[in-house]
Amino acid sequence: MRSPLVRQILILVALALAPGIGQAVYFQHKISWKSPIPPSELATVDQTRAWGENVIWVDARPDDEFASDHVPGAISLNEDRWNELLPQFLAAWSPGKKVVVYCSSLSCNASREVARRLRKEAQLPDVFVLEGGWEAWGKKNR
Amino acid sequence: MKTHIVAFALSIIISLSARAELKWQQTTIELHPTAADKQAVGHFKYQNPGSTPVHFKSVHASCGCTTAQTQKDEVPPGGTGEITATFNIGDRTGTQVKTVTVETDEATNQKTVLTLRTIIPQQLEINPTFVFWKQGDKPDPKTIMVKVSKDFPVKHIKVTSSSPDFQTKVEEKGNGEFKIDVQPQETKNVVASTLTIQPEDSQKVFYATARITNASTIQ
Amino acid sequence: MGEKEQMKQTPNVQRPTPNLEISWRGATSNIKHRTSNIVWRIVDLIIAGIFIFAALTKIFAVDQLIADLGHLHFGSMIADFQNLRLADPVQFANDIDNYKILPWPIGVGLAFYLPWLEMFCGLALILRRLYLGGLSILIGLVAVFLVATIAAKVRGLDITCGCFGHVSQNWSFPAHLATNVAILAGLLALWFNVRSENRTTL
To answer: Is the minimum CB–CB distance between C97 and chain A shorter than 8 Å?
Structure first.
């Protein structure tokens, strides 16, 4: 009795492998296998320290949060006033600079959205999202 | 066998009773604002089918761009109402998904997540929105492609540069596509220009940026 | 000769045949048996349908299709079918990752694999091929999922998605729990029914 059951389970497990692997192959380049955000798009606070003066900090939070406190030298660039704020960011950017975008905590989507638009629309290289966001920066620097 | 059927039926009843809470007409609303709209508003209607009043403990949105308001703090038995979620579109593009979390004092379901999905119409797709030359580079023209959305047919676009240091030339490629060639006079100085792109017969304007930047700062 | 030998050798022996009584009882028992089979078959189909639906919501991007179905926008549904595409697996991978039990790479692998496993097990229930195997796998999956859901709640984790991917993202914790308990109860009822049938035939 046990043997047929195990055989049936193994057959089903094997059957599902084929389309699963096929789907994985199809999406292999579209998904990050190592971390939820592709590692090439994430930067830790320690990494940004190593980059030193080469970093442009971008604050993706709403205006009032930026006004209240922000990373020294950070430029405000949020989706509420994207068209108005983008030129001043671009004025500060030059080739070779590493752009690090942050917002409040990793679960906030604003920094990812701003980073995505800078990569896609402005086609800037070296655009990163700060791992842990504003809170992580605060822990390391306060 | 009878025991099995009874057990199964009981489990169905339990699952049904566990969902006896504030009844929402919809927990996901999709909005299609026009290009001119600054806000998108969703009305989440609810009803209290229970025998006890339900109180709202908190209503908060997932981001600062969305505000949510209840009409009342308490919903009497049999009462109805709605939560109004207002999403400020700003300069956002594409499909935006924002949530509003509603907390009540119901015994079974204290948290409900309401989802506002806003499809923002995009009249023009500009690619890229930023072109640059490093100081000392050859002042060759660079291309910005503009693609018009099928929902907003545009025959012509007008491009103006805020700085005389950059010249622009527009070429219609057909099929709703336009090619803008941007060329600086020279690349000795760090200068910038905002390129204003305006579709014919449209109030809305779009922007791109052209710039001469400092040379690479890689250390 | 023994009595049996005598009986074998004697032709045309009239044997007692209370056919009428046996056939009447047999007919009633037959009807009950058939009704019971139909009921269990319906349960099979409902449970299988749930898992196949769950699998489809994770393999394909069906949010818009389901929204239109809910609003009875049948015209829009045709367009939705035509525009149907594979779902972004990152969504389901994030849902698995929200439970903070498995490392991300394993979560991604499961995000690709589990929906197909659910699909094939659901089909096993409908087609009655590899039935017990399918049932066992589904019981295992739901049991593990239940434990993970309760553990996540105890740990205070915010899990917004459940068995139906993003279709169930607005469900509360009690609703998730109750649905999974009901599905598990149904699966176990099917399991015990099959086992008792097998014992009867043996």
So the answer is: yes
> Where does B124-213 sit in CATH, by number?
2.60.40.10
- pLDDT tens for residues A17-31? 999 999 888 887 666
- Which strands, in side-by-side order, build the sheet including B177-184? B124-127, B142-148, B177-184, B166-174
A39-141: CATH, from 3.40.250.10, 1.10.132.60, 2.40.340.10, 1.20.120.1200: 3.40.250.10
pTM of the predicted structure, to 2 decimals: 0.58
How many Å apart are CA C96 and CA C98, to the nearest integer? 5
ipTM associated with this complex: 0.76
- What distance in Å separates residue C188's CA from the closest CA in chain B? 8
CATH level 3 topology of B22-120:
Immunoglobulin-like (2.60.40)
Are the folds of B22-120 and B124-213 the same? yes
Q: Please give the C-alpha separations between residue A34 and each of A40, A133, B107, B111, C59, in angstroms, as whole numbers.
A: 11, 20, 40, 32, 21
Cβ-based contacts of C109 with chain A (< 8 Å): 24
Residues 6+ apart with CB under 8 A from C39: B5
Q: What is the pLDDT of residues B160-176, one digit of tens each?
A: 999 999 999 999 988 88
Question: Is the per-residue pLDDT at B184 higher than 90?
Answer: yes
Q: CB–CB of B118/A105 below 8 Å?
A: no
Residues of B in contact with C39 (CB under 8 A): 5
Give the residue among B47, B127, B32, B107 at the shortest CA–CA distance from B82. Answer: B47
Which residues, at least 6 apart from A123, have a Cβ–Cβ distance to it below 8 Å?
Answer: B127, B128, B130
